[in-house]
Amino acid sequence: WRGREGAPYSTLVPSDEVTINYRHGLPVITLTLPTRSERCRFTVKPMVTTVGAFLQDVQREDKGIERAEVFATDGSKVSDATLMEVLLMNDFKLVVNNTAYSVSPPAKEMLSSEHATEMEDIKSLVHRLFVALHLEDHQIRKERELLQKLDHLKEELLPLEEMKARITDRADAKTSRLLWVGLALMSTQGGALAWLTWWVYSWDIMEPVTYFITYGSAMAFYAYFVLTKQDYIYPDAKDRQFLHYFYQKSKKQHFNVERYNKLKEDLAEAEESLRRLRQPLHLRLPIQEINDKD
Question: Is pTM, for the whole model, over 0.70?
Answer without folding.
Answer: no
